[in-house]
Amino acid sequence: EPEVTQTPSHQVTQMGQEVILRCVPISNHLYFYWYRQILGQKVEFLVSFYNNEISEKSEIFDDQFSVERPDGSNFTLKIRSTKLEDSAMYFCASKEHPYGYTFGSGTRLTVV
Amino acid sequence: LAKTTQPISMDSYEGQEVNITCSHNNIATNDYITWYQQFPSQGPRFIIQGYKTKVTNEVASLFIPADRKSSTLSLPRVSLSDTAVYYCLVGDLGNAGNMLTFGGGTRLMVKP
Lengths: 112, 112
Known about the structure:
heterodimer; A: seven-stranded mixed beta sheet; four-stranded antiparallel beta sheet; B: mainly beta; five-stranded mixed beta sheet; globular
C-alpha cells in the first residue's frame, strides 16, 4: 500500500531556530497538506498545496511558516523561527482527488 | 463546513460489535462523510467514506440514513488493536483544496 513518508520522525530544536520538516507524498497524488496536533489536542489544518501554490491556509499558518515542493517528490514545511508553542506532531497528507487523504506518520517537533 | 458531534468516549470488549454515531445536522448536498482512525503518535488513517445508504469495506461499515443528518460507523468484532480515536468528518470532496476539520473524535477503548 502506498505511503506518505515523513522525516525526521522526531526533531528537537532550540527556540528561535529554523526547522524544515520533510514529506514524500504518494507519487500520483496532486494535493498536499500539512496538519499539526499539539499533545492532547485536536488535529489542526495548516495549509493545502496544489499546482505549486498554496490553495488554502489557516490562521495558524502565519509568516513564520512556508511550504515548498522543491522537486517532483518532496514537500516541505519550514518554520523560520520556532517558538515553544510550535511543539507538536506535524502530519503531512496527500490526496488523489476525489478520494480520501493519506496521512504520514508524523514528525514530533519539540522546541526547547 | 458542517459541524459534527460524536461521543467523547466509548468502551467495548473484544469480539463485540461497536457502533459509533456521528451527528451532522447541517450537512450540505455535496458533502461526503468520512471516518478516520488515529492511534497515539500516528497520523489519522482513512477507514471508510460514503454519501448515502450503506457502505462496507474490509474493516468497517458505514450506515447513513436518508436524511443524512447522522451516520454510524460499525466495527464488527473489535479487538484490542482497535483501541484508538475515531473521527467523523464531513466535507465536499469536489473541492480538493478543502481542508479537513477534525473534532475531538471518539476515544474507543477495547477491553479484554
